[in-house]
Amino acid sequence: MAARKTTHRNRRPHAVIIGMMGAGKTRVGKEIAHMIRIPFADADIEIEREVGMKIPAYFEKYGERAFRKVEAELIADYLEDFEGIFSLGGGAPMTPSTQDALARYIDQGGRVVYLDADPAEAMERANRGGGRPMLNGDGNARWKKLFKERDPVFRRVANVHVRTRGLTPQGAAKKVIDMVAERTVHVTGAAIEPYDVAIGEGAMNHLAEVLGNKPHKIALIHTQSVQRHSDRARALLRQGGYEVSEIVIPDAEAGKTITVANGIWERLGNEGFTRSDAVVGLGGGAATDLAGFVAATWMRGVRYVNCPTSLLAMVDASTGGKTGINTPQGKNLVGSFYTPAGVLADTKTLATLPNDIFIEGLGEVAKSGFIGDPEILAILESHADELRGFDGSSFLGSPLEDVVSELIERTVTVKAHHVSSDLKEKGLREFLNYGHTLGHAIEKLEHFRWRHGNAVAVGMVYAAELAHILGYIDQDLVDYHRSLLSSLGLPTSWNGGSFEDVLALMHRDKKARGNQLRFVVLDSIGHVVHLDNPPADAVEEAFRRIQH
């Protein structure tokens, strides 16, 4: 056996592909490498080059145990010194040392892709290709036996699961590229069933994976304005074998009413939805709020997945388990805390957003920067011009897409931190309401003509002014609120109502305790405190200052 020269410069593969024999790992891997212009390596080919003979001959001469030792050593070296797409043989992930090596690779940010092909297609390709000692004898029977053994291991070893049924090699390659580029935020906590927020182009492809095999019927709840995206979701669901009931609700806050919810409950009852079925909410924040509320209340709780299509929904409403509807007395006064099975923030959907709808989402992004991650504020400052000039038609594939994906990931991470510690908003989670006490009052007084992110932007300036009046922060930080939010195209003042009307609504805020007001304010960037029952004259003076 020739000695293998390694340099161990700790270069990592762009992605490692695993899967059953005949899954198309080599063909798809080559397509991926070609599309993104990086090298491709096949472990089996590299092993044959190293041992100087074909794998079937090596198996026959030395046996499987010797082959697996050579294979594991080569894989370990390539995981540390190959920058490209690396495809493994079908049985490679079954070796414990290779599992450990793949786990270390993932810990360093690597992506192990389980290429999950249609069994019939994979068996046909595997038998046609020949040269597979593990399929000697009855090839199909051996393949099925191996699949039963290997599939659970592949699912455990991989951190990217790509179903390729019905896809061409080029289509499968594009799907892998999208899913490898995703960012993932894991949300967990003592009172939470853990779930992931997937962020990136093609994140919606995870729908069937997140829903699982248990549901038969899926209620796909969406607004008319996102029909293009709901068509895609419906196709993915039907491809996954689900029976889909499409339910269209009014846009924005008009869809978050007891009347709309009741209509959906009636429909679910008439169509025989059981506790084992599921709900998918697709659209902006109002749509995902309502879908979550329906899921939480139907038969005391069914599985649901959020597919947010606006920046605001991706960074706010879809994550955290807050579901609800509005009443004539206020926003989100009726609802429940009920976590989704997953959140799929597919950045493809942002390409259809008008500029003003995109920008309002930056209000919640900035809020997370102020309360928990100053790097968010630095990114917003550095890219304010491009963000303010957002154009969906040129968004995908542009440098701005990666900036926005990072902002979503960081914002969701801030929210996940607060939610994991306080699911039911009894303390820490209230800090996520920075800017919301006045913001919700503005929305109500404007009859929801003002968008949430815009109202929160003004609410943050108000909270900063109040904090400054009471000595928590200096004038420079108040000015920074105004300058940053203005640079993003967000409003920083409001003149649409009287102080008396605003005060009455702030007393109905969820944070209020009895007849006492409660605000969330900063005492420095990244450090938030509760402000209980502040002096009435300070509350009014801060309001006067945001009217300019």
Brief synopsis:
With 548 residues, this protein is α/β, with parallel strands linked by helices.
Layout of helices and strands, plus pairs?
Blueprint: E1 15-18, H1 25-36, E2 40-42, H2 43-51, H3 55-62, H4 64-80, E3 85-87, H5 96-107, E4 112-116, H6 119-129, H7 139-157, E5 160-163, H8 169-180, E6 183-189, E7 192-200, H9 207-211, E8 217-223, H10 227-239, E9 243-249, H11 258-270, E10 278-283, H12 285-297, E11 303-308, H13 311-317, E12 322-327, E13 330-337, E14 342-346, H14 355-371, H15 374-382, H16 384-388, H17 399-421, H18 436-445, H19 452-469, H20 475-487, H21 499-506, E15 518-524, E16 527-532, H22 536-545
Could you tell me the strand content as a percent range? 15-25%
Structural class: alpha/beta
Mean pLDDT over all positions:
87
Shape summary: elongated
Number of helices: 22
Largest sheet, in brief, is: 7 strands, mixed
Which percent range fits the helix content?
40-55%
- Using only CA atoms, what is the Rg? 27 Å
Give the strand line-up of the largest sheet: 6-7-14-11-10-8-9
Q: Detail the poorly predicted runs.
A: 1-9
C-alpha termini separation: 80 Å
- How many strands? 16
Kindly describe this structure.
The protein is 48% helix and 17% strand. Residues 1-9 have low confidence and may be disordered. The protein contains 22 helices and 16 strands. The longest helix is centred in the C-terminal third of the chain and has 23 residues, at 399-421. The radius of gyration is 27 Å and the shape is elongated. The chain has helices spanning 25-36, 43-51, 55-62, 64-80, 96-107, 119-129, 139-157, 169-180, 207-211, 227-239, 258-270, 285-297, 311-317, 355-371, 374-382, 384-388, 399-421, 436-445, 452-469, 475-487, 499-506, 536-545, and strands at residues 15-18, 40-42, 85-87, 112-116, 160-163, 183-189, 192-200, 217-223, 243-249, 278-283, 303-308, 322-327, 330-337, 342-346, 518-524, 527-532. A hairpin with a 2-residue loop joins strand 6 and strand 7. The strands form 4 sheets. It has a 7-stranded mixed β-sheet with strand order 6-7-14-11-10-8-9, with helices on both faces. Strands 2-3-1-4-5 form a 5-stranded parallel β-sheet, sandwiched between helices. A two-stranded antiparallel ribbon has the order 12-13. Helix 12 (285-297) crosses helix 13 (311-317), helix 18 (436-445) packs across helix 19 (452-469) and helix 19 runs antiparallel to helix 20 (475-487). It starts with 14 loop residues before the first strand and ends with a helix. It is α/β, with parallel strands linked by helices.
